[in-house]
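Fold it.
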Amino acid sequence: MEFMDGNTAKETLEISDILSGDRVGEKIRINGAVNTVRDMGDVAFIVLRKREGLIQTVYEEGKIDIPLSEIREGATLEVEGVLNTEDRAPNGVEVRIESIRILSQPTEAMPLPIGKWKLNTSLEAKLNYRPIALRNVRERAKFRIQEGLVRGFRDYLHNEGFTEIHTPKIGAKSAEGGANLFRLEYFHKPAVLQQSPQFYKQMMVGVFDRVFEVAPVFRAEKHNTKRHMNEYTSLDFEMGYIDSFEDIMQMETGFIKYTMDLLKKDYAREIKMLGIDVPEVDKIPAVRFDEAKKQVAEKYNRDIKNPFDLDPEEEQLICKYYKEECGADFVFVTHYPSKKRPFYAMDDPEDPTYTLSFDLLFRGLEVTTGGQRIHDINALYAKMEERKMTDEGMEQYLSCFKHGMPPHGGLGLGLERMTMQLLNEDNVREVTLFPRDLSRLSP
Protein backbone atom coordinates (compact mmCIF):
# COMPACT_ATOMS: atom_id res chain seq x y z
CA MET A 1 0.00 0.00 0.00
CA GLU A 2 1.18 3.51 -0.80
CA PHE A 3 0.30 6.77 0.92
CA MET A 4 0.37 10.20 -0.63
CA ASP A 5 1.90 12.90 1.56
CA GLY A 6 1.81 15.81 -0.90
CA ASN A 7 5.55 15.78 -1.54
CA THR A 8 6.99 14.72 -4.88
CA ALA A 9 10.74 14.38 -5.34
CA LYS A 10 11.69 15.32 -8.90
CA GLU A 11 15.06 14.87 -10.55
CA THR A 12 14.20 17.36 -13.29
CA LEU A 13 14.76 21.04 -12.51
CA GLU A 14 12.76 24.15 -13.26
CA ILE A 15 14.40 27.35 -14.50
CA SER A 16 14.04 28.96 -11.07
CA ASP A 17 15.84 25.95 -9.51
CA ILE A 18 18.71 26.40 -11.97
CA LEU A 19 19.02 30.12 -11.41
CA SER A 20 18.63 30.04 -7.62
CA GLY A 21 21.62 27.80 -6.95
CA ASP A 22 25.24 27.67 -8.03
CA ARG A 23 24.86 24.78 -10.48
CA VAL A 24 27.23 25.88 -13.23
CA GLY A 25 29.48 22.94 -14.14
CA GLU A 26 27.03 20.42 -12.71
CA LYS A 27 25.13 17.77 -14.63
CA ILE A 28 21.41 18.58 -14.54
CA ARG A 29 18.19 17.21 -15.98
CA ILE A 30 15.49 19.40 -17.48
CA ASN A 31 12.38 18.90 -19.60
CA GLY A 32 10.32 21.13 -21.86
CA ALA A 33 8.79 21.68 -25.29
CA VAL A 34 10.97 22.47 -28.30
CA ASN A 35 10.41 26.15 -29.03
CA THR A 36 13.03 26.48 -31.78
CA VAL A 37 15.86 24.48 -33.34
CA ARG A 38 18.78 26.43 -34.83
CA ASP A 39 20.99 24.08 -36.83
CA MET A 40 24.50 25.52 -37.18
CA GLY A 41 26.09 22.41 -38.73
CA ASP A 42 28.12 20.44 -36.21
CA VAL A 43 26.26 22.17 -33.40
CA ALA A 44 22.54 22.96 -32.97
CA PHE A 45 20.80 25.07 -30.39
CA ILE A 46 17.58 23.54 -29.11
CA VAL A 47 15.61 26.10 -27.12
CA LEU A 48 13.12 24.56 -24.72
CA ARG A 49 9.98 26.31 -23.53
CA LYS A 50 8.93 25.89 -19.93
CA ARG A 51 6.35 27.58 -17.72
CA GLU A 52 8.93 30.06 -16.46
CA GLY A 53 10.41 30.94 -19.85
CA LEU A 54 13.06 29.61 -22.23
CA ILE A 55 16.27 27.66 -21.70
CA GLN A 56 18.87 26.93 -24.35
CA THR A 57 20.43 23.50 -24.83
CA VAL A 58 23.35 22.61 -27.10
CA TYR A 59 23.21 19.54 -29.36
CA GLU A 60 26.59 18.36 -30.71
CA GLU A 61 26.59 16.07 -33.74
CA GLY A 62 27.97 12.61 -33.00
CA LYS A 63 27.61 12.88 -29.22
CA ILE A 64 23.88 12.06 -29.08
CA ASP A 65 22.36 8.79 -30.26
CA ILE A 66 19.18 10.55 -31.50
CA PRO A 67 19.58 12.32 -34.87
CA LEU A 68 18.79 16.03 -34.95
CA SER A 69 16.15 15.41 -37.64
CA GLU A 70 13.97 13.75 -34.98
CA ILE A 71 14.02 16.84 -32.78
CA ARG A 72 11.11 18.80 -34.20
CA GLU A 73 9.41 22.01 -33.11
CA GLY A 74 6.63 21.14 -30.69
CA ALA A 75 8.22 17.90 -29.45
CA THR A 76 8.61 17.51 -25.70
CA LEU A 77 11.98 16.35 -24.40
CA GLU A 78 13.88 15.45 -21.29
CA VAL A 79 17.55 16.29 -21.60
CA GLU A 80 20.53 15.69 -19.35
CA GLY A 81 23.76 17.62 -19.59
CA VAL A 82 26.22 20.04 -18.04
CA LEU A 83 25.10 23.58 -17.20
CA ASN A 84 27.34 26.36 -18.49
CA THR A 85 27.14 30.14 -18.52
CA GLU A 86 26.35 31.82 -21.84
CA ASP A 87 25.52 35.52 -21.88
CA ARG A 88 23.76 35.30 -25.25
CA ALA A 89 21.38 32.54 -24.12
CA PRO A 90 18.03 33.14 -22.36
CA ASN A 91 18.67 33.62 -18.63
CA GLY A 92 22.44 33.58 -19.30
CA VAL A 93 22.88 29.78 -19.14
CA GLU A 94 22.76 26.78 -21.45
CA VAL A 95 22.87 22.99 -21.10
CA ARG A 96 25.38 21.00 -23.19
CA ILE A 97 23.39 17.86 -23.89
CA GLU A 98 24.73 14.40 -23.04
CA SER A 99 21.48 12.48 -23.46
CA ILE A 100 17.96 13.10 -24.77
CA ARG A 101 14.68 11.33 -24.11
CA ILE A 102 11.80 12.20 -26.45
CA LEU A 103 8.58 12.39 -24.44
CA SER A 104 6.23 13.13 -27.35
CA GLN A 105 6.36 13.99 -31.03
CA PRO A 106 4.08 16.29 -33.05
CA THR A 107 2.33 14.75 -36.04
CA GLU A 108 1.94 18.01 -37.96
CA ALA A 109 4.06 21.09 -38.58
CA MET A 110 3.27 24.21 -36.55
CA PRO A 111 0.62 26.38 -38.25
CA LEU A 112 2.18 29.55 -36.78
CA PRO A 113 5.81 30.63 -36.23
CA ILE A 114 5.56 30.45 -32.45
CA GLY A 115 9.34 30.39 -31.98
CA LYS A 116 9.68 33.97 -33.22
CA TRP A 117 10.00 36.72 -30.64
CA LYS A 118 6.93 38.53 -32.02
CA LEU A 119 4.08 36.56 -33.52
CA ASN A 120 3.56 38.79 -36.54
CA THR A 121 0.35 37.28 -37.84
CA SER A 122 -3.26 38.41 -38.04
CA LEU A 123 -5.55 38.40 -35.00
CA GLU A 124 -7.87 36.08 -36.91
CA ALA A 125 -5.07 33.52 -37.37
CA LYS A 126 -4.07 33.80 -33.72
CA LEU A 127 -7.66 33.17 -32.60
CA ASN A 128 -8.22 30.30 -35.05
CA TYR A 129 -5.12 28.55 -33.63
CA ARG A 130 -5.44 29.96 -30.12
CA PRO A 131 -3.91 27.08 -28.10
CA ILE A 132 -0.91 27.10 -30.46
CA ALA A 133 -0.54 30.88 -30.71
CA LEU A 134 -0.34 31.13 -26.92
CA ARG A 135 2.78 28.96 -26.93
CA ASN A 136 4.63 32.04 -28.17
CA VAL A 137 6.29 33.41 -25.04
CA ARG A 138 5.16 37.01 -25.60
CA GLU A 139 1.56 36.03 -26.32
CA ARG A 140 1.62 33.85 -23.22
CA ALA A 141 3.04 36.70 -21.12
CA LYS A 142 -0.13 38.76 -21.67
CA PHE A 143 -2.10 36.23 -19.66
CA ARG A 144 0.48 36.13 -16.90
CA ILE A 145 -0.14 39.87 -16.50
CA GLN A 146 -3.88 39.17 -16.50
CA GLU A 147 -3.31 36.60 -13.77
CA GLY A 148 -1.51 39.29 -11.77
CA LEU A 149 -4.56 41.57 -12.00
CA VAL A 150 -6.86 38.85 -10.64
CA ARG A 151 -4.34 37.87 -7.99
CA GLY A 152 -4.04 41.49 -6.84
CA PHE A 153 -7.83 41.80 -6.67
CA ARG A 154 -8.18 38.65 -4.59
CA ASP A 155 -5.23 39.34 -2.30
CA TYR A 156 -6.19 42.92 -1.58
CA LEU A 157 -9.86 42.20 -0.86
CA HIS A 158 -9.04 39.19 1.32
CA ASN A 159 -6.80 41.48 3.36
CA GLU A 160 -9.69 43.96 3.63
CA GLY A 161 -12.04 41.37 5.12
CA PHE A 162 -13.96 40.33 2.00
CA THR A 163 -15.35 36.82 1.47
CA GLU A 164 -15.13 35.25 -1.99
CA ILE A 165 -18.46 33.94 -3.29
CA HIS A 166 -19.60 32.00 -6.37
CA THR A 167 -22.99 32.87 -7.79
CA PRO A 168 -25.12 31.16 -10.48
CA LYS A 169 -24.90 32.32 -14.08
CA ILE A 170 -28.36 31.05 -15.06
CA GLY A 171 -31.27 32.95 -13.58
CA ALA A 172 -34.92 33.86 -13.96
CA LYS A 173 -34.27 37.60 -14.12
CA SER A 174 -31.29 39.81 -14.93
CA ALA A 175 -30.05 42.53 -12.63
CA GLU A 176 -29.49 44.92 -15.52
CA GLY A 177 -32.60 44.26 -17.62
CA GLY A 178 -32.95 45.54 -21.16
CA ALA A 179 -32.92 43.71 -24.46
CA ASN A 180 -29.29 42.55 -24.42
CA LEU A 181 -30.00 39.22 -22.70
CA PHE A 182 -29.18 35.68 -23.76
CA ARG A 183 -32.50 33.93 -23.25
CA LEU A 184 -32.80 30.16 -22.94
CA GLU A 185 -35.18 27.43 -21.95
CA TYR A 186 -34.41 25.92 -18.57
CA PHE A 187 -36.43 22.68 -18.15
CA HIS A 188 -39.44 24.24 -19.91
CA LYS A 189 -39.06 27.53 -18.02
CA PRO A 190 -37.72 30.82 -19.42
CA ALA A 191 -34.28 31.77 -18.13
CA VAL A 192 -31.41 34.14 -18.91
CA LEU A 193 -27.64 34.14 -18.70
CA GLN A 194 -26.64 36.67 -16.07
CA GLN A 195 -25.34 40.08 -17.16
CA SER A 196 -23.79 40.53 -13.72
CA PRO A 197 -23.85 38.96 -10.23
CA GLN A 198 -25.45 42.16 -8.90
CA PHE A 199 -28.53 40.73 -7.18
CA TYR A 200 -26.58 37.90 -5.58
CA LYS A 201 -23.72 39.98 -4.25
CA GLN A 202 -26.20 42.45 -2.74
CA MET A 203 -28.02 39.56 -1.07
CA MET A 204 -24.73 38.32 0.35
CA VAL A 205 -23.84 41.71 1.82
CA GLY A 206 -26.60 40.90 4.31
CA VAL A 207 -24.65 37.74 5.20
CA PHE A 208 -20.92 38.55 5.06
CA ASP A 209 -20.91 42.40 4.92
CA ARG A 210 -18.14 42.34 2.26
CA VAL A 211 -18.09 39.96 -0.72
CA PHE A 212 -16.35 39.61 -4.07
CA GLU A 213 -16.43 37.36 -7.12
CA VAL A 214 -14.32 36.73 -10.23
CA ALA A 215 -16.56 35.15 -12.87
CA PRO A 216 -17.91 35.37 -16.43
CA VAL A 217 -20.83 37.60 -17.36
CA PHE A 218 -22.85 37.63 -20.57
CA ARG A 219 -24.09 40.47 -22.77
CA ALA A 220 -26.20 39.77 -25.87
CA GLU A 221 -25.05 42.96 -27.55
CA LYS A 222 -24.83 42.92 -31.33
CA HIS A 223 -21.65 44.94 -31.22
CA ASN A 224 -18.66 44.11 -33.34
CA THR A 225 -16.19 46.58 -31.87
CA LYS A 226 -12.67 46.32 -30.51
CA ARG A 227 -13.86 46.97 -26.94
CA HIS A 228 -16.95 44.73 -26.62
CA MET A 229 -17.30 41.01 -25.94
CA ASN A 230 -20.40 38.85 -25.45
CA GLU A 231 -18.73 36.96 -22.61
CA TYR A 232 -16.09 38.54 -20.42
CA THR A 233 -14.66 38.17 -16.93
CA SER A 234 -15.92 40.61 -14.32
CA LEU A 235 -14.17 41.43 -11.05
CA ASP A 236 -17.03 42.33 -8.71
CA PHE A 237 -17.21 43.38 -5.09
CA GLU A 238 -19.95 44.67 -2.81
CA MET A 239 -19.46 46.10 0.67
CA GLY A 240 -21.83 47.06 3.45
CA TYR A 241 -21.88 49.74 6.14
CA ILE A 242 -20.50 52.40 3.85
CA ASP A 243 -20.77 56.10 4.65
CA SER A 244 -20.90 57.15 1.00
CA PHE A 245 -20.17 55.89 -2.50
CA GLU A 246 -16.71 57.39 -2.10
CA ASP A 247 -15.88 54.41 0.15
CA ILE A 248 -16.23 52.22 -2.95
CA MET A 249 -13.87 54.42 -4.96
CA GLN A 250 -11.35 54.42 -2.13
CA MET A 251 -11.44 50.62 -2.00
CA GLU A 252 -10.87 50.38 -5.75
CA THR A 253 -8.02 52.89 -5.57
CA GLY A 254 -6.38 50.76 -2.89
CA PHE A 255 -6.77 47.63 -5.01
CA ILE A 256 -5.24 49.32 -8.06
CA LYS A 257 -2.28 50.70 -6.09
CA TYR A 258 -1.65 47.28 -4.54
CA THR A 259 -1.95 45.48 -7.87
CA MET A 260 0.36 47.80 -9.82
CA ASP A 261 3.01 47.30 -7.13
CA LEU A 262 2.45 43.53 -7.27
CA LEU A 263 2.95 43.51 -11.05
CA LYS A 264 6.20 45.44 -10.78
CA LYS A 265 7.47 43.08 -8.09
CA ASP A 266 6.32 39.60 -9.15
CA TYR A 267 5.77 40.04 -12.90
CA ALA A 268 8.88 42.04 -13.78
CA ARG A 269 9.94 39.50 -16.43
CA GLU A 270 6.64 39.77 -18.30
CA ILE A 271 6.56 43.57 -17.93
CA LYS A 272 10.00 43.81 -19.50
CA MET A 273 9.15 41.31 -22.24
CA LEU A 274 6.01 43.21 -23.24
CA GLY A 275 7.42 46.69 -22.71
CA ILE A 276 4.58 47.65 -20.36
CA ASP A 277 4.41 51.11 -18.84
CA VAL A 278 2.93 50.28 -15.44
CA PRO A 279 1.12 53.40 -14.17
CA GLU A 280 2.17 55.07 -10.95
CA VAL A 281 -0.95 55.24 -8.81
CA ASP A 282 -0.62 57.47 -5.79
CA LYS A 283 -4.13 58.90 -5.95
CA ILE A 284 -6.89 59.01 -8.56
CA PRO A 285 -8.79 62.22 -9.45
CA ALA A 286 -12.59 62.21 -9.28
CA VAL A 287 -14.77 64.59 -11.28
CA ARG A 288 -18.54 64.93 -11.66
CA PHE A 289 -20.05 63.66 -14.91
CA ASP A 290 -21.52 67.02 -15.93
CA GLU A 291 -18.33 68.88 -15.01
CA ALA A 292 -16.15 66.47 -16.99
CA LYS A 293 -18.31 66.97 -20.07
CA LYS A 294 -17.96 70.76 -19.79
CA GLN A 295 -14.20 70.57 -19.24
CA VAL A 296 -13.49 68.61 -22.41
CA ALA A 297 -16.04 70.57 -24.45
CA GLU A 298 -14.30 73.82 -23.54
CA LYS A 299 -10.69 72.65 -23.78
CA TYR A 300 -11.03 70.61 -26.96
CA ASN A 301 -13.70 72.75 -28.66
CA ARG A 302 -16.38 70.09 -29.09
CA ASP A 303 -20.15 70.08 -28.68
CA ILE A 304 -21.91 68.10 -25.95
CA LYS A 305 -24.00 65.70 -28.05
CA ASN A 306 -25.49 63.39 -25.41
CA PRO A 307 -26.12 64.93 -21.96
CA PHE A 308 -26.91 61.54 -20.38
CA ASP A 309 -23.87 59.41 -21.29
CA LEU A 310 -20.22 59.54 -22.37
CA ASP A 311 -19.33 58.56 -25.90
CA PRO A 312 -15.97 56.83 -26.61
CA GLU A 313 -14.36 60.09 -27.78
CA GLU A 314 -15.38 61.85 -24.56
CA GLU A 315 -13.86 59.04 -22.47
CA GLN A 316 -10.60 59.49 -24.36
CA LEU A 317 -10.65 63.27 -24.00
CA ILE A 318 -11.43 63.16 -20.27
CA CYS A 319 -8.42 60.91 -19.77
CA LYS A 320 -6.30 63.15 -21.98
CA TYR A 321 -7.40 66.18 -19.95
CA TYR A 322 -6.44 64.63 -16.60
CA LYS A 323 -3.20 63.21 -17.97
CA GLU A 324 -2.24 66.72 -19.08
CA GLU A 325 -3.51 68.43 -15.92
CA CYS A 326 -2.20 66.07 -13.23
CA GLY A 327 -0.40 63.14 -14.89
CA ALA A 328 -3.20 60.68 -14.03
CA ASP A 329 -3.77 57.46 -15.99
CA PHE A 330 -7.02 56.74 -14.10
CA VAL A 331 -10.02 59.07 -13.62
CA PHE A 332 -13.23 58.53 -11.64
CA VAL A 333 -16.27 60.13 -13.30
CA THR A 334 -19.02 60.44 -10.69
CA HIS A 335 -22.73 61.31 -10.44
CA TYR A 336 -23.99 59.69 -13.63
CA PRO A 337 -27.53 60.63 -14.70
CA SER A 338 -30.20 58.46 -13.09
CA LYS A 339 -31.69 57.88 -16.53
CA LYS A 340 -28.63 55.80 -17.51
CA ARG A 341 -28.30 53.78 -14.30
CA PRO A 342 -30.21 50.67 -13.09
CA PHE A 343 -33.16 50.97 -10.73
CA TYR A 344 -31.12 49.91 -7.68
CA ALA A 345 -28.65 52.83 -8.06
CA MET A 346 -29.12 55.38 -5.28
CA ASP A 347 -30.12 58.84 -6.46
CA ASP A 348 -28.24 61.88 -5.23
CA PRO A 349 -30.46 63.37 -2.48
CA GLU A 350 -29.36 66.86 -3.54
CA ASP A 351 -30.41 66.29 -7.16
CA PRO A 352 -32.25 63.01 -7.93
CA THR A 353 -31.63 63.39 -11.67
CA TYR A 354 -28.10 62.20 -10.84
CA THR A 355 -26.93 59.09 -8.96
CA LEU A 356 -24.30 58.33 -6.35
CA SER A 357 -22.44 56.25 -8.90
CA PHE A 358 -19.26 56.36 -10.95
CA ASP A 359 -17.23 54.93 -13.80
CA LEU A 360 -13.47 54.48 -13.69
CA LEU A 361 -11.73 55.44 -16.92
CA PHE A 362 -8.25 54.08 -17.68
CA ARG A 363 -6.23 55.57 -20.52
CA GLY A 364 -9.31 56.54 -22.48
CA LEU A 365 -11.62 53.62 -21.77
CA GLU A 366 -14.26 52.82 -19.14
CA VAL A 367 -13.12 49.76 -17.17
CA THR A 368 -15.35 49.94 -14.06
CA THR A 369 -18.92 50.85 -13.19
CA GLY A 370 -19.97 51.14 -9.56
CA GLY A 371 -21.75 53.13 -6.89
CA GLN A 372 -24.03 53.14 -3.87
CA ARG A 373 -27.21 51.01 -3.96
CA ILE A 374 -30.65 51.69 -2.58
CA HIS A 375 -30.93 49.74 0.69
CA ASP A 376 -34.43 50.84 1.80
CA ILE A 377 -37.21 48.59 0.46
CA ASN A 378 -39.72 51.43 0.14
CA ALA A 379 -37.27 53.49 -1.90
CA LEU A 380 -36.64 50.46 -4.13
CA TYR A 381 -40.36 49.95 -4.75
CA ALA A 382 -40.78 53.65 -5.49
CA LYS A 383 -37.98 53.55 -8.08
CA MET A 384 -39.45 50.42 -9.66
CA GLU A 385 -42.91 52.00 -9.83
CA GLU A 386 -41.43 55.13 -11.39
CA ARG A 387 -39.88 52.95 -14.10
CA LYS A 388 -43.02 50.85 -14.49
CA MET A 389 -41.21 47.68 -13.39
CA THR A 390 -42.75 44.60 -11.79
CA ASP A 391 -41.12 42.41 -9.17
CA GLU A 392 -41.54 39.24 -11.24
CA GLY A 393 -38.42 37.07 -10.87
CA MET A 394 -37.00 39.39 -8.21
CA GLU A 395 -38.97 38.22 -5.21
CA GLN A 396 -36.01 36.62 -3.43
CA TYR A 397 -33.80 39.65 -4.11
CA LEU A 398 -36.39 42.07 -2.74
CA SER A 399 -37.11 39.90 0.30
CA CYS A 400 -33.60 40.66 1.62
CA PHE A 401 -34.49 44.34 1.85
CA LYS A 402 -37.76 43.56 3.62
CA HIS A 403 -35.70 41.96 6.37
CA GLY A 404 -33.18 44.81 6.63
CA MET A 405 -30.02 45.67 4.69
CA PRO A 406 -27.11 47.96 5.59
CA PRO A 407 -26.06 50.93 3.44
CA HIS A 408 -23.93 49.33 0.74
CA GLY A 409 -22.40 49.62 -2.69
CA GLY A 410 -19.96 47.99 -5.04
CA LEU A 411 -18.57 47.75 -8.53
CA GLY A 412 -17.76 45.55 -11.49
CA LEU A 413 -14.45 45.78 -13.38
CA GLY A 414 -13.92 44.26 -16.82
CA LEU A 415 -10.77 42.15 -16.62
CA GLU A 416 -10.09 41.99 -20.35
CA ARG A 417 -10.57 45.73 -20.85
CA MET A 418 -8.25 46.48 -17.95
CA THR A 419 -5.63 44.14 -19.42
CA MET A 420 -6.04 45.63 -22.89
CA GLN A 421 -5.39 49.16 -21.64
CA LEU A 422 -2.47 48.12 -19.45
CA LEU A 423 -0.80 46.30 -22.35
CA ASN A 424 -1.68 49.06 -24.84
CA GLU A 425 -3.45 46.58 -27.12
CA ASP A 426 -5.86 47.76 -29.79
CA ASN A 427 -8.42 44.95 -29.50
CA VAL A 428 -9.86 43.27 -26.41
CA ARG A 429 -9.67 39.90 -28.20
CA GLU A 430 -5.87 40.06 -27.98
CA VAL A 431 -6.16 39.61 -24.20
CA THR A 432 -9.10 37.17 -24.12
CA LEU A 433 -8.11 33.52 -23.96
CA PHE A 434 -11.02 32.22 -26.06
CA PRO A 435 -13.14 35.17 -27.23
CA ARG A 436 -16.89 34.96 -27.69
CA ASP A 437 -18.39 37.55 -30.00
CA LEU A 438 -20.93 37.81 -32.83
CA SER A 439 -18.95 35.48 -35.08
CA ARG A 440 -16.90 33.24 -32.78
CA LEU A 441 -17.98 30.24 -30.73
CA SER A 442 -14.76 28.23 -31.06
CA PRO A 443 -12.21 27.17 -30.12
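The first helix runs from residue 15 to 20.
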